Input
Amino acid sequence: MEWKFLVDIMLGRLARWLRTLGYDAFYTRNGIDSRMMVLAYRENRFILTRSKRLYNKIGPELSVFINSDDFRDQVREVINVLGIKFDRNIFLTRCLNCNLPLMELPKEDAQLKVPPYVFQTVNRFRACPQCRRVFWSGTHISEMEKLIDTFWERKGDQ
Ligand SMILES: [Zn+2]
Output
C-alpha cells in the first residue's frame, strides 16, 4: 500500500523519517487549517498530528494522534497504528528535504558532486530533481538501517 501523509507542525523529524522510509510526507510549518484538510482528503493523505482537538475533529479513519515527544517513538506509533511494514524497494527513494522522488543519476554525472572516495566505491547514485542533492548507499546507510530495525523490533515483541 502506498501511504501518503500530511504531517503537522512540531513533527518535522517524523516527516523526514517517513521520507527516508520512502513515503510521501508533506510537512506543514503553519499548522493544519481547513485548506490543508481539503488537500489531505483530496489526496488521501493521513494526517499525523499532536493536536488532540484536530485528531478528534478528523477521526481515526484519516488521522493518527502522536503521543510521544521522541521522533523514534513517533515513527513506531505511526507504523504500529497503521500496520506499515518496512519496504526495502522504496527505502531511500525520496529526498529527505523536498519530499520528491529521487531520480537515477548516471555515475559519470555524479563525479563532480560527491567526494572522490565515494565515487570510486559506489556505483549507484540518485539525485533530487529540486535541490539537486545526490544520495548513495554507504556506511551512513547501515547506521540508518540499525535505527530502522529498532522501529519494527518492538512490534515483534508484542
Ligand atoms: Zn531535494
Q: What stands out?
A: The CA atoms of residues 45 and 82 lie 13 Å apart. The chain has a mean pLDDT of 91.
